[in-house]
Amino acid sequence: MTPRWTTAVLDTNLSGGRAVARSPEGFLVNDDGPLFSREWLASQSLPVMAEHGIGYLDGEPVYVLELERAVEVEGCRWQGLRAFMLEGDHTLYKVLGYAAQIATWAREHRFCGRCGRAMTQVPGERAMYCSPCELRSYPRISPSMIVLITRGDEVLLARSPRFVPGVYSTLAGFAEPGESAEECLIREVREEVQLEVKNIQYVGSQCWPFPHSMMLGFHAEYAGGEIVPQPDEIEDAQWFNVHHLPPLPASRSIARYLIDLYVARRLGLAEPVLPG
Question: Which of 83, 75, 4 is nearest to 44 (CA)?
């Protein structure tokens, strides 16, 4: 079966296709959604910083317009990417997640990081190029680990001050230069809750376009220590019994998958599917 959505580098000089418009306030959307005729968006006099062809949806080319700022467009509003993650069309969310990462890269690489001159798009390649420096810049992916720590029927869950009120989740953090994912996991757990872990097992990964992470999911067992939350990073951390869990992250997140998978295995329930 042909996939509905495939990524591709498309020539922006070609006409036709559909497009999404993204600003610092999210994606432009109307009652029919965030996908518009490319010609119609071009007629709206939007403050476009960059345009990139990102792939094909149901065989039709799709482009992303990265805007300098949000502007009013009659009959439209702005909606953040996280809101699309919670809605029903997973394919649309994947399109917008990819668009957001390419748009972020386009915004952050308008100028050369070595000499400061303007960069240009490389035809047929997802790269920006500085001719004087011969420097090519590609979309950035930031590896990070996310881990569910368990102790028998208990799971360790924590709250960040940035979370939705009441929601608890797994621990996570970005890998530092020179670290393996496992070393990152051990360090982050020590920093955030001062616990030691053992029997680290890789579970799966998920693209996390907020703004450009690759989440590497792990399960680990408790090995020792008392919970001491890291100031300013962890608001609260507790052991929760699998029969009495607090409000959890969105079902499409790998954090929720790690929790649901362990609970299912512990209670003999059907295992969930890793979100794409």
Answer: 75
Cα–Cα distance between 69 and 51 in angstroms, integer? 14
Residues belonging to the binding site for a divalent metal cation are 172, 188, 192, 233
Domains in the chain, CATH or no CATH each: 5-105 (3.90.79.20), 109-139 (no CATH), 142-267 (3.90.79.10)
Give per-residue pLDDT as tens, 25-35.
999 999 999 99
Q: What pLDDT digit, counting tens, does each position of 216-230 carry?
A: 999 999 999 999 999
Annotated binding site for substrate: 82, 125, 138, 206-213, 255
pTM here is 0.91
| Backbone torsions φ then ψ of 98, nearest 5 degrees | -65, -45
Binding residues: 82, 112, 115, 125, 130, 133, 138, 172, 188, 192, 206-213, 233, 255
